[in-house]
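Side project, low priority. Logging it here so it doesn't get lost.
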Amino acid sequence: MDFAPPRTLGMTLGAALTALLLAALGLGVQRLAAAEVSPWLLLWVTMPLLSLPMLLAVGYRLYGLLTARYHLDRDGFSLTWGLAFDQVPLSDITQVTRVPVGDLRLRPSFGLWWPGCMVGKGKDPELGVLEFFATRSPEGLVLLRARDRTLVISPADPEAFEQAFVAATRMGSLEPIPAVSRRPDFLVARLWADRAALGLLLAGLGLSLALLGYLALRAPSLPPMIPFGFDVSGRPGALAPPGRLLLLPLIGGLTWFVDLVLGAWMYASERDRPLAYALWGTALLSGALLWGAALHLLAAA
């Protein structure tokens, strides 16, 4: 029997958060392109660099909500939430209980979550470590306790879920199923252990950050307007505020981030791993080109 969690609140707040992050990303890029050198420049640079990874994280949470499903039958319980999957044999389930109304203890302590999208890990003095895959808080939550873990879920009809569990227990299992707990692997641990990959990634990011710091140090000594670009004959082009130069490390940072994501996807396959190294190496090339462009423009100022 399939059960789905309520999604309306989580999807609504997630969509609103996505809109805010997109607005911050667009505002930061727009203001950075037109701003003069001032303390505000740090804000305009920071907004796009923080908004883009946050957009990806929120997007994954929304994908999890769209795919969220609980399944319970006489053989066991299974949970699908984005790329996460759990399967618990019925014989391993020791208790299924509803959380009392008004009990505010149960909240994820780790992970990105918001009301209507409670995903992450928490800890309770009595229950121990909890894994949340729920959309309600606190009423409507169901604790599913197995031998080695406790899942916190939120079927749309908790009473029907409890009745289905009692009925499944009475019928007994027809075929034993294995216990499975699969979580998305974003390759962080493997990349951290790979010195070549880690070196390429840190070097690519370091070039963009170093360029940002260099331009910030040079900014007070620059004239009010500087050339930003060159014509086909190599002569300086139209003049622009010095703050326009900060687009160069921003472009470098965004290029590095895109290369990081695409390379991580390729890195997961042993066959495509050389392509991941090559892609991360292009961040070094683009960083060096942006450094050259910045120095050339400053020399022409």
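Brief comment: Residues 40-67 form the longest helix (28 residues).
Revisit when time allows.
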